[in-house]
Amino acid sequence: MLKAGVNIANFTGGDFGNIDKSPLTSFHAGGILRWKFEHLILQGEVLYSEQGAKLKDSTSEKDYKVSYINIPIVLQYAFKGGFYVEAGPQVGFKVNENVPDNANSNKFAKSEDFSVALGLGFNKGKGFGIGGRYTVGVTSVGESNSANYDANFKNGVIQFSIMYIF
Hints:
This protein has strands spanning 2-13, 20-22, 24-37, 40-56, 61-78, 83-98, 112-123, 127-137, 153-165. By secondary structure, it is mainly β. Strand 4 (40-56) and strand 5 (61-78) form a beta hairpin.
């Protein structure tokens, strides 16, 4: 089973002082395994996901991208007709970061990220489906403080997905 879609990501919390945070649009893609028990579905995923934010100071706006392999495990409740709601934990493992003006390569974000996924969607069992999900960061993402920000910020990601169930 395959899944892909759009991320609208931002950093939540933390103190960025005079720096404005705005959403970064990126993507996610990967695979799904499902186990169905009547109306309950246990779904595990492995997704490549680009996350981060746009940070703007008085002179420039720059994209701060952190790429993860995310592994959400969600429990879905499927209603008659194909609609479902879902919730569950997610762990992410950093695979890359593209952070402007960062002399210490790969030191902006921690190597792991934990979050909680909440979503809803539509799928008739086999074939195409759609879904929307918000992942709320539980742990801080920042590796260390800088003169411009406090490292106590988290990932917040809205995902819109298309999936194909075999």
